[in-house]
Amino acid sequence: MAQYMPAFSQHMKELEAAGGKREFLEIGRLAGRFPAASSTLDGTSAEISVWCSNDYLGMGQHPSVLTAIKEIIDEYGAGAGGSRNIGGTNHYHVLLEKELADLHGKEDALLFTSGYTANDGALSVLAGRLKDCVVFSDELNHASIIDGLRHSRAEKHIFRHNDCAHLEELIAAVDPDRPKMIVMESVYSMAGDIAPLAEIVDIAKRYEAMTFLDEVHAVGMYGPQGAGIAASLGMADEFTVIMGTLAKGFGTTGGYIAGPSVLIDAVRGLSRSFIFTTALPPAFVAGSLAAVRHLRNSDTERDKLRDNAQSMHRLLKEHGIPFISDRSHIVSVLVGDDTTCKKASDILLERHGIYVQSINAPSVRVGEEILRIAPGAVHSAEEVRKFVEALDGIWTELELPRAQNPEQASAARV
């Protein structure tokens, strides 16, 4: 066994030399006080403020969610006890699937243990079991989409990010009799920009293509009752399958797809990542159900999220700090250098108690390193202002380039 270790050691040395070694900050989110969290800095316990969490609305701390989880743990225990096929289906799994189908106006829904396995498991079946299917996928689609399409073994064409002219060029070149599928995200996780959904739907109709829409960074946060970007445009019924997560806007864990019953049944019966894994714990499913139901009846969290994001966009523009897109709540400040990006992140944490993770390759392209900031519903307007002031000082200290006018500040490459 020992003779194999040097190869991995060499891989890690090369990764570290390239600046790609991953380091993890241990934090303890403080229940009822988030975005406050405990951490250890320079060997000393400290309280920090988290600004890069995907729990965008703070639902992971919401009293109704915590109460539901505690009650169901007392009733059913910790785990599901098996896969959904073998002893792991609890009544709360069924209730949540019905709730999610109703949220998206679809016939049926199916839970997965994560958003990653939902994309991987669903696409491997939907693209893989449809004979001679050809798939058209946005170049910035998430790794889980990429893996799902690889596992499907379907023919795949990559269109330039949000470029509908390129998408149509590719799809028009394919035999019109072949089954087709277009796969995209609504809100892109690193850039924070939004797909041109109306144009994509138009292309899908003209070329008779199925559509698979990943709404991971939109469900809970956009649209009526938090149903997502497609719903906000009145277009949810135009997408064949909608995929979402419970781990971001809804604050818990798990993923799902919603769509026509026949497709959901096919995934339920054929998806390896669904069949061969332990089901989500009933307590967390109950917590997710509480979160979904709350957000279907409350705009308070969505309004606060929107206000904080718009305020940060405005302040960054005033200070000439460049960011990629002002279309969503994901504020990706563009640094463009791995070492400098990490330095900015370190200063924010060590001097200001602000935690924002620097993002480098492979999550973004080399030379497009960012500070991925998530001003959530849990932050106050004053905290947003102080955050930008701290970032402004760092921008000066590190001699980073500034935008010359407010329009250039959000000079998206997308």
From TrEMBL:
CDD domains: KBL_like. Gene3D superfamilies: Aspartate Aminotransferase, domain 1 (3.90.1150.10), Type I PLP-dependent aspartate aminotransferase-like (Major domain) (3.40.640.10). It comes from the Bacteria. The keyword Acyltransferase applies. Its cofactor is pyridoxal 5'-phosphate. It catalyses: 6-carboxyhexanoyl-[ACP] + L-alanine + H(+) = (8S)-8-amino-7-oxononanoate + holo-[ACP] + CO2. InterPro entries: 4pyrrol_synth_NH2levulA_synth, Aminotransferase_I/II_large, AON_synthase_class-II, PyrdxlP-dep_Trfase, PyrdxlP-dep_Trfase_major, PyrdxlP-dep_Trfase_small. It is an enzyme of class 2 (transferase). Its EC number is 2.3.1.47. Keywords: Acyltransferase, Transferase. Residues 50-391 form the Aminotransferase class I/classII large domain. Belongs to the class-II pyridoxal-phosphate-dependent aminotransferase family. This is 8-amino-7-oxononanoate synthase. It comes from Streptomyces graminofaciens.
